[in-house]
Amino acid sequence: MAAKDDLGRRGENYALSYLCAAGYQLVERNWRCAQGEVDLIVERGGEVVFVEVKTRSSVRFGHPFEAITAAKLARLRRLAYAWCAEADPPPRRIRIDAVAIVAAAGAEPVIEHRQGLF
């Protein structure tokens, strides 16, 4: 399990670096509540973005985006609303994104960012 945790943490680090380079600012990382956890919460231009990060070492068993099911997306929406209910002031605009990382050993990670998942 430790190797999986390390891969996930590296993926979050890659995603955060990628997003920051694109002009996003980190609001929270690994925000948790009773309903679950949001990997990254970032902000750019007054819009708060809730980011699900999926990391794989290869696409041998499927692309990372394939792990984002309808149930996971519904949970992300509930988590986003829970975070907004606690925010002071609440954000005026929100979005849910996903970042897929394929981080093969010894190679540069391949990063894909999909905006506005529903």
Descriptive overview:
With 118 residues, this protein is of the alpha+beta class. It has a single domain, classed as Trna Endonuclease, Chain: A, domain 1. Helices cover 31% and strands 36% of the residues. The protein contains 2 helices and 5 strands, in the order H-E-E-E-H-E-E. The protein has helices at 2-21, 70-86; strands at residues 25-33, 36-44, 47-56, 93-102, 110-114. The chain has a 5-stranded mixed β-sheet, with helices on both faces. A hairpin with a 7-residue loop joins strand 4 and strand 5 (110-114). The longest helix has 20 residues, at 2-21. It is globular, with a radius of gyration of 14 Å. The protein starts with a helix and ends with a strand. The mean pLDDT is 93.
